[in-house]
Design a protein that fits this description.
Layout lengths: L6 H10 L4 H25 L3 H131 L1
Helix pairs in contact: 1-2
């Protein structure tokens, strides 16, 4: 196996840092064993180029078979599915058109009903306004009549009061002349 670092240089470096030659060689030997063990573990999981090429060829042939099967399926079953899909699309378009027609009818009916209700409400408001105007007129007439009657009674009361005052004055003057 090839090592990708200089083991002798590592031994020298360890010796320079205070290790003995035997300790340095043991440490480097242990490192080499650890690296070899790790490489063995890695190589077990790896494939060679030849194995990789064989697997690639097998996958490519399998893909080619699947492509052929897909072409055959596309020609037979997919064409049936496409025609069925087209039928469903046409049916959906017809249903959509029917639904849109129904929605248009419902909207028109609702608009008509709404306009009828609006006109009924307007007529009702107009009737209420007329009745209210008539009631206001009657009230105004009654109030005016009451004011006229009140003024008339007021004048009558003033007449009677004036008559009573003059009568009392006349009687008082009569008694005054009698005593004088």
């Amino acid at each position: 196996r090839r090592l990708y670092f200089d083991t002798h240089a590592l031994v020298c470096l360890l010796e320079e840092n205070g290790f003995t030659t035997q300790q340095s060689e043991v440490i480097v030997s242990a490192l080499v064993k650890i690296m070899n063990t790790n490489l063995d573990m890695i190589y077990k999981d790896m494939v060679t180029k030849v194995q990789q090429e064989i697997a690639l060829q097998q996958i490519m042939s399998h893909i080619g078979g699947v492509k052929k099967d897909m072409i055959i399926l596309e020609k037979s079953e997919f064409s049936a599915l496409r025609s069925e899909n087209e039928k469903i699309k046409l049916e959906l378009q017809q249903i959509k058109k029917q639904v849109m027609d129904e929605i248009t009818k419902v909207r028109a009916d609702n608009k008509l009903n709404l306009n009828l209700e609006k006109s009924r409400v307007k007529e009702l408001h107009a009737q209420q306004d007329r009745a209210l105007t008539q009631t206001d007129r009657k009230i105004d007439t009654e109030v005016a009549d009451l004011k006229t009657m009140l003024e008339s009674h007021k004048l009558d009361n003033i007449k009677y009061l004036a008559g009573s005052v003059f009568t009392c004055l006349t009687v008082a003057l009569g008694f005054y002349r009698l005593w004088i």
